[in-house]
Predict the 3D structure of the following.
Amino acid sequence: MKKQILLLFIFSIASLVSCISEPMDLADTGSKLAVGDSIPDFLVITSDRDTFTQDSHPGKTLVLLFFHTECGDCQKELPVVEQVYRDCRQDSLWQLLCIGKEEKTEKVIQYWQENRFSMPVSPQEDRNIYDRFAYSGVPMIYIIDAQNIIRAVYSDQKMPSYEDLKGWILKVNEENLKDREPASFSQVNSLTSPL
């Protein structure tokens, strides 16, 4: 009897670690991708019927947020991300996309309407897109530069504050701009001049 109670206690604690409880191998938890990795190919359709792929943000910073509306951590983080989106949406140097995980489209749309979210969202009734990025847990946020390289990853263990998220967006935007600037005349000259 004591062993059963102990097992039940351990199982209960383990299920609280991840916002959305799911079976998992302890070696494979959280994000499949790390800072410095390229993002995988993906294609989603937003609720506004826009097609979005890994190449839909040329020259821009991309913020991907994976969520589930019943997740308590997601319910706390989505308003933070919405506020960043509203405050920075006029900045054409970044894009945001929220991608649902295993949830009916109607439920996600209703949640967006109830919370008056204006963020682009792509409800997903399966976990096919999510599985390209992560093993387990939501919310999961990826900040990605113009070359599709991950610059920051936030999981349900530690979510970014408003200041953190906005800071990352501004930082990566600035770096993207530097990467787009044409080489100065002296740099071009040194590249083309004979030794």
